[in-house]
Design brief:
- By secondary structure, the protein is α+β, with helices and mostly antiparallel strands.
- The protein contains four helices and seven strands.
- The protein has a seven-stranded mixed sheet with strand order 1-2-3-4-5-7-6, with helices on both faces.
- Helix 1 (11-24) crosses helix 2 (36-48).
- The structure holds coenzyme A (COA).
- Residues 21, 25, 27, 85-87, 92-98, 118, 120-121, 125-128, 130-131, 134 line the site of coenzyme A (COA).
Protein backbone atom coordinates (compact mmCIF):
# COMPACT_ATOMS: atom_id res chain seq x y z
CA UNK A 1 0.00 0.00 0.00
CA UNK A 2 1.18 3.49 -0.77
CA UNK A 3 0.08 6.84 0.59
CA UNK A 4 0.15 9.67 -1.93
CA UNK A 5 -1.46 12.98 -2.75
CA UNK A 6 -4.90 12.69 -4.31
CA UNK A 7 -5.28 13.88 -7.90
CA UNK A 8 -8.02 14.53 -10.43
CA UNK A 9 -8.05 10.87 -11.48
CA UNK A 10 -9.03 9.86 -7.92
CA UNK A 11 -12.18 11.95 -7.68
CA UNK A 12 -14.52 9.18 -8.87
CA UNK A 13 -13.09 6.74 -6.30
CA UNK A 14 -13.29 9.38 -3.57
CA UNK A 15 -16.93 10.02 -4.46
CA UNK A 16 -17.74 6.30 -4.34
CA UNK A 17 -16.09 5.76 -0.95
CA UNK A 18 -17.46 8.93 0.60
CA UNK A 19 -20.89 8.38 -0.96
CA UNK A 20 -21.17 5.01 0.77
CA UNK A 21 -20.57 6.61 4.17
CA UNK A 22 -22.92 9.50 3.39
CA UNK A 23 -25.72 7.07 2.59
CA UNK A 24 -25.08 4.38 5.18
CA UNK A 25 -23.15 5.84 8.11
CA UNK A 26 -23.13 8.54 10.75
CA UNK A 27 -19.46 9.56 10.40
CA UNK A 28 -20.54 12.46 8.19
CA UNK A 29 -23.70 14.47 8.62
CA UNK A 30 -23.97 15.05 4.88
CA UNK A 31 -27.02 13.23 3.46
CA UNK A 32 -26.70 13.54 -0.32
CA UNK A 33 -23.56 12.03 -1.88
CA UNK A 34 -21.51 14.67 -3.71
CA UNK A 35 -20.56 14.03 -7.33
CA UNK A 36 -16.95 13.40 -8.31
CA UNK A 37 -16.59 16.95 -9.65
CA UNK A 38 -17.68 18.35 -6.31
CA UNK A 39 -15.18 16.11 -4.50
CA UNK A 40 -12.55 17.57 -6.80
CA UNK A 41 -13.59 21.15 -6.01
CA UNK A 42 -13.44 20.45 -2.28
CA UNK A 43 -10.04 18.79 -2.66
CA UNK A 44 -8.67 21.75 -4.60
CA UNK A 45 -9.75 24.11 -1.79
CA UNK A 46 -7.88 22.02 0.79
CA UNK A 47 -4.73 21.83 -1.31
CA UNK A 48 -4.86 25.56 -2.09
CA UNK A 49 -4.82 26.21 1.66
CA UNK A 50 -1.51 24.33 1.88
CA UNK A 51 -3.07 21.35 3.61
CA UNK A 52 -2.85 17.62 2.82
CA UNK A 53 -5.42 15.57 0.90
CA UNK A 54 -4.07 12.02 0.64
CA UNK A 55 -5.19 8.63 -0.62
CA UNK A 56 -4.19 5.10 0.33
CA UNK A 57 -3.76 2.97 -2.78
CA UNK A 58 -3.08 -0.73 -3.15
CA UNK A 59 -2.40 -2.32 -6.53
CA UNK A 60 -4.00 0.61 -8.31
CA UNK A 61 -7.13 0.66 -6.16
CA UNK A 62 -7.92 3.58 -3.87
CA UNK A 63 -8.79 2.09 -0.48
CA UNK A 64 -9.45 5.31 1.37
CA UNK A 65 -8.56 8.93 1.86
CA UNK A 66 -7.89 11.49 4.53
CA UNK A 67 -7.40 15.21 4.60
CA UNK A 68 -7.26 18.20 6.90
CA UNK A 69 -9.15 21.40 6.27
CA UNK A 70 -9.45 24.70 8.10
CA UNK A 71 -11.54 24.21 11.26
CA UNK A 72 -13.51 27.45 10.87
CA UNK A 73 -12.89 30.50 8.65
CA UNK A 74 -12.35 33.20 11.31
CA UNK A 75 -8.77 34.44 11.47
CA UNK A 76 -7.92 33.34 15.01
CA UNK A 77 -8.53 29.71 14.02
CA UNK A 78 -5.49 29.82 11.71
CA UNK A 79 -3.47 27.25 13.69
CA UNK A 80 -6.31 24.70 13.92
CA UNK A 81 -7.48 22.17 11.35
CA UNK A 82 -10.20 19.52 11.27
CA UNK A 83 -9.35 16.09 9.92
CA UNK A 84 -11.51 13.71 7.90
CA UNK A 85 -10.88 10.06 7.02
CA UNK A 86 -12.97 7.60 5.02
CA UNK A 87 -12.06 4.04 4.12
CA UNK A 88 -13.81 1.80 1.57
CA UNK A 89 -16.24 -0.51 3.36
CA UNK A 90 -14.41 -3.64 2.18
CA UNK A 91 -11.05 -2.29 3.41
CA UNK A 92 -11.83 -1.23 6.99
CA UNK A 93 -10.02 -2.77 9.94
CA UNK A 94 -6.80 -3.43 8.02
CA UNK A 95 -4.73 -0.46 9.11
CA UNK A 96 -5.54 1.73 6.11
CA UNK A 97 -7.10 4.51 8.19
CA UNK A 98 -4.14 4.54 10.57
CA UNK A 99 -1.63 4.91 7.74
CA UNK A 100 -3.39 7.56 5.72
CA UNK A 101 -4.42 9.67 8.73
CA UNK A 102 -0.91 9.42 10.21
CA UNK A 103 0.48 10.82 6.98
CA UNK A 104 -2.03 13.67 7.11
CA UNK A 105 -0.94 14.47 10.67
CA UNK A 106 2.72 14.50 9.61
CA UNK A 107 1.91 16.93 6.80
CA UNK A 108 -0.08 19.14 9.19
CA UNK A 109 2.89 19.25 11.54
CA UNK A 110 5.09 20.33 8.63
CA UNK A 111 2.54 23.06 7.80
CA UNK A 112 2.86 24.54 11.30
CA UNK A 113 -0.53 23.41 12.60
CA UNK A 114 -0.91 23.47 16.41
CA UNK A 115 -4.24 21.69 16.96
CA UNK A 116 -6.03 19.01 14.97
CA UNK A 117 -9.71 18.57 15.75
CA UNK A 118 -11.80 15.51 14.97
CA UNK A 119 -15.54 16.07 14.88
CA UNK A 120 -16.73 12.48 14.85
CA UNK A 121 -20.28 11.71 13.87
CA UNK A 122 -22.02 9.45 16.39
CA UNK A 123 -21.03 8.48 19.95
CA UNK A 124 -21.25 4.87 18.72
CA UNK A 125 -18.58 5.37 16.04
CA UNK A 126 -16.12 3.04 17.78
CA UNK A 127 -13.87 2.76 14.73
CA UNK A 128 -13.29 6.50 14.34
CA UNK A 129 -13.02 7.14 18.08
CA UNK A 130 -10.61 4.19 18.36
CA UNK A 131 -8.53 5.30 15.38
CA UNK A 132 -8.17 8.84 16.71
CA UNK A 133 -7.33 7.59 20.20
CA UNK A 134 -4.72 5.25 18.72
CA UNK A 135 -3.10 8.26 17.01
CA UNK A 136 -2.90 10.29 20.21
CA UNK A 137 -6.10 12.32 20.08
CA UNK A 138 -7.72 13.12 23.42
CA UNK A 139 -11.42 13.46 24.19
CA UNK A 140 -12.61 17.07 24.09
CA UNK A 141 -16.33 16.68 24.73
CA UNK A 142 -19.56 15.47 23.22
CA UNK A 143 -22.09 17.57 21.35
CA UNK A 144 -25.35 15.96 22.28
CA UNK A 145 -27.80 15.32 19.43
CA UNK A 146 -26.27 17.90 17.09
CA UNK A 147 -27.51 15.88 14.12
CA UNK A 148 -30.65 14.08 12.97
CA UNK A 149 -29.89 11.37 10.42
CA UNK A 150 -31.38 8.04 9.41
CA UNK A 151 -34.35 8.76 11.67
CA UNK A 152 -32.53 9.43 14.93
CA UNK A 153 -30.62 12.06 16.87
CA UNK A 154 -26.86 11.76 16.50
CA UNK A 155 -24.11 13.11 18.77
CA UNK A 156 -20.79 14.50 17.68
CA UNK A 157 -17.67 13.44 19.57
CA UNK A 158 -14.92 16.03 19.75
CA UNK A 159 -11.31 14.88 19.98
CA UNK A 160 -8.11 16.88 19.55
CA UNK A 161 -4.40 16.40 19.16
CA UNK A 162 -1.68 19.00 19.63
CA UNK A 163 1.13 19.29 17.09
CA UNK A 164 4.34 21.32 17.23
CA UNK A 165 4.03 21.71 21.00
CA UNK A 166 0.41 22.90 20.87
CA UNK A 167 -0.08 25.90 23.15
CA UNK A 168 3.25 25.59 24.97
CA UNK A 169 4.59 28.62 23.13
CA UNK A 170 3.43 31.43 20.87
CA UNK A 171 3.07 30.82 17.12
CA UNK A 172 6.25 30.98 15.06
CA UNK A 173 4.62 30.69 11.62
CA UNK A 174 1.90 32.83 9.95
CA UNK A 175 -0.67 30.01 10.13
CA UNK A 176 -3.39 29.35 7.60
CA UNK A 177 -4.63 32.17 5.40
CA UNK A 178 -8.34 32.05 6.17
CA UNK A 179 -11.25 33.64 4.35
CA UNK A 180 -12.98 35.06 7.45
CA UNK A 181 -12.02 38.31 9.14
C1 LIG B 1 -13.10 5.15 11.07
C2 LIG B 1 -12.27 4.54 9.94
C3 LIG B 1 -11.68 5.69 9.12
C4 LIG B 1 -11.15 3.71 10.56
O1 LIG B 1 -10.28 3.26 9.53
P1 LIG B 1 -9.76 1.75 9.50
O2 LIG B 1 -8.86 1.59 8.35
O3 LIG B 1 -10.92 0.85 9.59
O4 LIG B 1 -8.93 1.66 10.89
P2 LIG B 1 -7.56 0.89 11.12
O5 LIG B 1 -7.71 -0.51 10.67
O6 LIG B 1 -6.44 1.69 10.54
O7 LIG B 1 -7.46 0.90 12.69
C5 LIG B 1 -6.53 1.71 13.40
C6 LIG B 1 -6.86 1.68 14.86
O8 LIG B 1 -8.15 2.26 15.07
C7 LIG B 1 -8.83 1.53 16.10
N1 LIG B 1 -10.02 0.89 15.53
C8 LIG B 1 -10.27 0.62 14.23
N2 LIG B 1 -11.49 0.05 14.10
C9 LIG B 1 -12.00 -0.04 15.34
C10 LIG B 1 -13.23 -0.52 15.85
N3 LIG B 1 -14.18 -1.02 15.04
N4 LIG B 1 -13.44 -0.43 17.18
C11 LIG B 1 -12.50 0.09 18.00
N5 LIG B 1 -11.30 0.57 17.57
C12 LIG B 1 -11.07 0.50 16.25
C13 LIG B 1 -7.86 0.53 16.63
O9 LIG B 1 -7.11 1.12 17.68
C14 LIG B 1 -6.96 0.30 15.42
O10 LIG B 1 -5.69 -0.11 15.77
P3 LIG B 1 -5.35 -1.69 15.86
O11 LIG B 1 -5.76 -2.27 14.55
O12 LIG B 1 -3.89 -1.69 16.11
O13 LIG B 1 -6.17 -2.19 16.98
C15 LIG B 1 -13.12 3.61 9.03
O14 LIG B 1 -13.67 2.60 9.81
C16 LIG B 1 -14.24 4.34 8.30
O15 LIG B 1 -14.05 4.78 7.17
N6 LIG B 1 -15.42 4.44 8.96
C17 LIG B 1 -16.59 5.07 8.38
C18 LIG B 1 -16.43 6.55 8.10
C19 LIG B 1 -16.11 7.33 9.34
O16 LIG B 1 -16.75 7.25 10.37
N7 LIG B 1 -15.05 8.18 9.22
C20 LIG B 1 -14.60 9.03 10.27
C21 LIG B 1 -15.36 10.31 10.26
S1 LIG B 1 -14.90 11.33 11.65
Amino acid sequence: MIIRAAGDADDAALATIYGHHVLHGFGTFEEVPPAAAEMGRRRATIVAAGLPYLVAEDAGTVLGFAYAGPFRPRAAYRYTVEDSVYIAPDAVGRGVGRQVLSAVLDACADAGVRQVVAVIGDSGNAASIGLHRALGFEPAGVGRSFGFKHGRWVDIVWMQKALNGGDERAPDTPGLHLSGA
